[in-house]
Amino acid sequence: DTAVSQTPKYLVTQMGNDKSIKCEQNLGHDTMYWYKQDSKKFLKIMFSYNNKELIINETVPNRFSPKSPDKAHLNLHINSLELGDSAVYFCASSQERSGATHYGYTFGSGTRLTVV
Amino acid sequence: LAKTTQPISMDSYEGQEVNITCSHNNIATNDYITWYQQFPSQGPRFIIQGYKTKVTNEVASLFIPADRKSSTLSLPRVSLSDTAVYYCLVVGGYNTNAGKSTFGDGTTLTVKP
Question: Could you read off the pLDDT of A58-76 as tens digits, one per residue?
Answer without folding.
Answer: 778 999 999 999 989 999 9
